[in-house]
Design brief:
This protein has 202 residues and is of the alpha+beta class. The protein has a single domain, classed as 3-Layer(aba) Sandwich (NADH Oxidase), CATH 3.40.109. Helix content is 40%, strand content 20%. It is built from 7 helices and 6 strands; from the N terminus they run E-E-H-H-E-H-H-E-H-E-H-E-H. It has a 4-stranded antiparallel β-sheet with strand order 3-4-6-5, sandwiched between helices. It has a two-stranded antiparallel ribbon with strand order 1-2. The radius of gyration is 17 Å and the shape is globular. The relative contact order is 0.19.
């Protein structure tokens, strides 16, 4: 990936319905490096993340594939300390959620997928689609030197109540993000044997 000193982009913030031109810091990693180096980060510096970088991360989430290009998602970017604390409580007391500079809340909209794909759309496709968006944003964040943690352990009803969500949305992931206070040790990952996880048919 070619590096640039500055990159001018158009970043769309869906949650705020704002389109703007912003300056974004140069990417530091290509996608393969980001995949290989990604670690869950739970300790964050309190340095603010530039809004232009947050916008770019969101833009990468919006570019995720989705069944029928329906894009059954909504992304909430939570900066407010009181809401972050409520999300940490909803996440069964995982305090690091509330300590991150921002928390990205990724919502699925099952009914939107169901309009074309019925039950399978509402129960599977919208979950697959939002998961792809989460992964895009986590890798994009890492490319800008920002750590994150994909949190799936939370009470959906409490998250919905904290954000006063419409019933048509289902919380899928909480993703606290920030510059790492310390980088997790890079140790060999324990992987299942290839013969159990990869089947090749020629």
């Amino acid at each position: 990936m070619q590096e640039f000193s500055e990159l001018r982009i158009n970043a769309y913030r869906e949650s705020l319905d704002v389109l703007c031109s912003v300056e974004v810091t140069v990417l530091s990693k290509n996608v393969i490096e980001a995949i290989e180096e990604r670690r869950s980060v739970r300790q964050f510096k309190q340095d603010p993340i530039p809004e232009s970088v947050v916008n770019r991360i969101i833009d990468c989430g919006l570019k995720a594939p989705s069944a029928g290009n329906i894009q059954p998602w909504q992304f909430w970017v939570i900066w407010r300390p009181s809401l972050k604390a409520a999300l940490a409580e909803a996440a069964f007391g995982q305090e690091f959620v509330g300590q991150a500079p921002i928390v990205m809340v990724v919502l699925a909209e099952p009914a939107r997928s169901a309009t074309r794909y019925g039950y399978r759309g509402s129960e599977l496709y919208c979950i697959q689609d939002t998961a792809a968006a989460v992964q895009n944003m986590i890798l994009a964040a890492l490319a800008y030197g920002i750590g994150s943690c994909w949190v799936g352990a939370f009470d959906e009803k409490k998250v919905s109540k904290a954000l006063n969500l419409s019933e048509r949305f289902r919380p899928v992931a909480l993703v606290p993000m920030g510059y790492p206070a310390e980088l997790p040790a890079r140790r060999p990952r324990s992987c299942r044997p290839l013969e159990e996880t990869v089947i090749t048919v020629q």
